[in-house]
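User: My instructor asked us to take a sequence, write out its structure as tokens, and then describe one feature of it. I'm not sure where to start. Here is the sequence I was given:
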Amino acid sequence: MKWQVIAGAGLVLSSCIAIAIIKLDPRDTEVWDPVPAVVTADPNQPPSDAVVLLGDTDDTFAWQAVSGGDMPWSVADGVLTVEPGTGDIRTREHFCDMQLHIEWRVPEPEPDMDGQARNNSGVFLQERYEIQVLDSWQNRTYSNGQAGAVYKQTMPLVNATRPPGQWQVYDIVYRAPRFESEQVIEPAHVTVLHNGVVIHHYTEIKGNTVFIGEPEYEAHTCAPLRLQDHRDRVSYRNIWVRPL
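Assistant: Let's start with the prediction itself. The structure tokens for your sequence are:
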């Protein structure tokens, strides 16, 4: 008799479930609007909606000296190379959240080059937050200062650096910090692929890049992308941004 009661209850429960399932409509969870924009992304080409900052020509209008003057670095065949001592350059356009693609190459080092002196540069997101560029091929330095590091903050998960003379690729997805008045309410985060290898996975950026001391945030709006003159002849090519 107890089994019959349980069985009967089970039948009632099953009937309720069946009725509930029948009442569900898959269209209730379909979203039709808005329709995502179509973006084409041909192999080895910037996506169709990208802001091309350096392409396959020698047009460098997108860049200027940090001082505001003309871009002082050399360019040939779509390759932009630091002219040591001329200073950093930055984009004329300002960016917030973005997907950034940038390729870089260091020359063969001189025999006395090691550590941070081994052909150094940097990619500064919003002019403040540096992703280190350095010849880290068989070159030991402090881990949060090697290639791909959020400089002086977070080391890369792995060292994916190719030998000098070869092109390196950074693909960066960046979420800018959020501020209320002068206070940061959400820090910046960055995901970085180096030569196709994830080296940062939504890593928190702790504040402005500083050489000495602890990073801190200062409120800001959208800002340029900046490339560093560290007095080494580091080269760049194929730079594009997709604002997010």
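For the description part of your assignment, you could build on this observation: DSSP finds one helix and 15 strands in the chain. Try explaining in your own words what that tells you about the chain.
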